[in-house]
Amino acid sequence: MTLLALETSCDETSAAVVRDGKILSNIVSSQIKLHAEYGGVVPELAAREHLKNISPVTQAALDEAKISPAQLDAVAATQGPGLAIALLVGLKTAQAMAFALSKPFIGINHHEAHLYSPWINVLPASCRQKNGDCLQDGYTLPAADFSKFQPNVSLIVSGGHTLLVLVESDLNHRVLGGTIDDAAGECFDKTGKLMGLAYPAGPVIDKLAEQGNPKAFSFPRPLLHDANDDFSFSGLKTSVRYFLRDHPDLLNDPQKVRDICASVQAAIVEVLVAKTIRAAKRNGVRCVTASGGVTCNRALRNELERACQKNGFTLHLAEKSLCTDNAAMIGILAEQKLLKGNFISEFDAEIKPGWALA
User: Fold this and answer.
1) pLDDT recorded at residue 141
2) 106, 214, 226, 264: least buried by Cβ within 10 Å?
3) DSSP string covering 106-146
4) Which residue has the higher pLDDT, 329 or 148?
5) What's the helix, strand, coil split of the chain in %, to 5?
6) Which distant-in-sequence residues (6+ apart) come within 8 Å of 226 by Cβ?
7) Full-model pTM
8) In order of start, what are the domains of the chain with their CATH numbers?
9) What is the pLDDT of residue 38?
């Protein structure tokens, strides 16, 4: 099965071609520079960029995979959640292609794609040329390895969402808890904005925190000791705001800036890791997975690995290239759905901007 997938839920225009669980191409056009001066994503600007980029990005994905549209067996796209005006571009493009080719169309939940992305294997960058050809003769593209699936508790953590999900079997899951206000990624970015750091601030804080003291300043750990699986980071963000208001001079000291970054990061990571491990224990699973943009954070990856080793859990982290928004995870999940049942969507199916993960 050969499938084209499109992703335009926020500020990345992405197209990918997958075949039999293997990623043949995964093109991502980022809009970070466009939105940086506004300190966040402007929906109208994002939609215009998607409209400009969707055709060349799709063609690039087909070219890299050496696939013509006629060779496609299905077309998929993110149906939600996301920015409505951005989702429209990818969804309607994919539906039009599927209709014109008389091929099935599959609408995919963006969060569900993140949920299963830790089971996707990626060809190492060192083995791939810019045109997609493998540098090593006879190298076999790795396929998504759902055969090693284990019941797990999964942490999905991004700029807009933080979720804990119990996955009892392949494509059978239920949400345990989620964000009741600010998500973890949003807290990173808004903290960075308060500190005058470049957008998006998450990677900047990650880098600065590496040389900072995580115990230099004490910030709250919201809901850390609550028995539920929900998250709340608005209180932490507010605490940082008042702290900086009362200690503005600290921002003039580069080392203090690094210490603040490390201290805020430590608070966020501790909550994410502790609640994930607690949920895994309570639900009797021995496997933990994590995905979403914030999973690129090195402290989070390290602390999850340390906590899982301590508790005897297996840990599967999504490849960093699949943590941020991308079409490859959309395509892999769409292919799995087609193989395991009738998940075909209507050609006129509408976007679902608030589509919650079931």
Assistant:
1) 62
2) 226
3) EEEEHHHHHHHGGG-----GGGB-TTS-BSSTTPPPPBP-G
4) 329
5) 45, 20, 35
6) none
7) 0.92
8) 2-122+322-340 (3.30.420.40), 148-318 (3.30.420.40)
9) 84
